[in-house]
């Protein structure tokens, strides 16, 4: 291994550790918020809140014009070129457009409040509640805009701080509201949580000092066109994804009721938290690095393979832990009334492994600015997901939604690989393929162990697999960064334990 390869692996690990560490704190605070929500609301009203949240994400996807994602690529390219004037003009135009899209989000939410209430709940009793969600859309759009700016500039420390402080403020503002208002506090809770995230992102984004440059609105439009061109691809893809999530919850609701939606929402929330832990660093550091390698296929493939291996090695112990302790996770984060969600969660964990394998490849499409392929892949995945959920719910009940999520990522891996191989010359290395296969076998065995009838044997087998796979992943990780401090620390720890087993 060359020094450059070790440096690249170290950068990936550093970013993952920093953002992952902040996510651990975020997860703890999120678990506290979720626990209070679950106790106060129960599965049925928790499902209603899930429908509100899904609608909000749908509106954000439409109103944002994809600027949060496309701007990362543009700002990273300007920053990589070292052109301070270009950086300043890009950021100024971007900030203006974020304000415009935030206001557009309010208008769209108000416009769709009545039809959304009728379509989702079959009555007009939720119109005013949905109108109030326009505030959540505005706050979330501002927060996403500030995050896109910091990601493009690769200010990883600031992004980690925002994750922690935003979670803290969201918890501090939201929990008293839910405890005081109880069931009527769902909308104030969502607004308070969004406000906490927005305040934290604004605090750090305001510290970005750029050269003051006056630009007209015509110049703003000219500077934003390239962002909007790629951004519209994100809009179409985001609408497809958000709409499919909305339809999936409607399918579950119509076939199985509100309580089933609550079970699905609870397991999906746990998966989303874990995805944030493992994959957050990809959009913040990996994408800007990949965007700077456009045109150099060899270096592109090397970085993608490095990112994929690191992501898998970091993720596998957590995935196995989620499988082994799925019942405990549901009980800790929610309550015993959500016990039916553990079956869904186990299947979704299999899908998460697929997502971790797929995403490093998928970022090639974004870094290359290949909007058409990105839209095509997202729409195809959304259609497949809805179809699989519809079939799964009819045949297997609520667990069928989890099976559908796993099936989705079998399709997604094959489809995304076909695109990046044919259009962008991506070829996985032998070591990356080996890592993927071994990880799939390990997670598959752990999944199979969850069906052992005897509780003590099931937990014992699962824990043995967890400890064995964690040890192997640590050994593999440290072999990629042999001269780093974490590796030296691990060798000392391993040495201490090995001394304990030596014969006197």
Q: What order do the helices and strands come in, and which of them pair?
A:
Layout: H1 3-63, H2 67-81, H3 84-121, H4 127-152, H5 156-181, H6 186-205, H7 217-256, H8 258-291, H9 297-324, H10 326-333, H11 341-367, H12 371-396, H13 399-424, H14 430-449, H15 455-480, H16 485-500
Helix pairs in contact: 1-3, 1-4, 1-5, 1-7, 1-8, 1-9, 2-3, 2-4, 2-7, 2-8, 3-4, 3-7, 4-6, 4-8, 5-6, 7-8, 7-12, 8-9, 8-11, 9-11, 9-14, 9-15, 10-11, 11-13, 11-14, 12-13, 14-15
* Series of H and E elements: HHHHHHHHHHHHHHHH
| Overall morphology | globular
Structural class: mainly alpha
The count of strands amounts to: 0
How many helices? The count is 16
Helix content: over 70%
**Domain module count:** 1
Quick one: biggest sheet?
Answer: none
Distance between the termini: 38 Å
Mean pLDDT over the full residue set: 81
**Gyration radius, rounded:** 23 Å
Question: How would you sum up this structure in a few lines?
Answer:
The chain is mainly α and 504 residues long.
What do these coordinates show?
- By secondary structure, the chain is mainly α.
- The chain has one domain.
- It has 16 helices and no strands.
- Helix 4 runs parallel beside helix 8 and helix 12 packs antiparallel against helix 13.
- The longest helix is centred in the first third of the chain and has 61 residues.
- The two termini are 38 Å apart.
Sum up the structure in keywords.
mainly alpha, globular, 87% helix, 504 residues
